[in-house]
Amino acid sequence: MTDDDYVATGAWLMDLVLSEDEAIDLRTLLDGTLGDLSMEIADTDNPALRVALKERRDRLRGVRQRMAALD
Question: Which of these, 59, 60, 25, 53, lies nearest to 39 by C-alpha position?
Fold first, then answer.
């Protein structure tokens, strides 16, 4: 990626072409990871780690929602 691909929102523009099987695998992986993150967030006593995990979960939820919109 180049600097031209980086937009003002702080996001990289990316096209990702997946086969149907790859898309299914990625959705399954995201769903599992999101569940694991929720459990880890609930179990952690470290406030900074909890914030970081929530931010990661929110980013991955966004990816998963965008994938769902393509179904």
Answer: 53
β-pair partners for 6: 12
| Count of CA atoms in the C-beta half-sphere (13 A) of 58 | 6
What's the CA gap between 30 and 33, in Å, rounded?
A: 5
Cα 56 to Cα 23: distance, rounded to the nearest angstrom: 20
45 phi and psi angles, rounded to 5 deg: -100, -5
Q: What is the pLDDT of residues 25-68, one digit of tens each?
A: 999 999 999 999 999 999 999 999 999 999 999 999 999 999 99
Helix (H, G, I), strand (E, B) or coil at 58: helix
> Which residue has 């003002």 as its token pair?
8
The residues that bridge with 12 in the sheet, in sequence order, are 6
> How far apart are the C-alpha atoms of 52 and 58, rounded to whole Å?
10
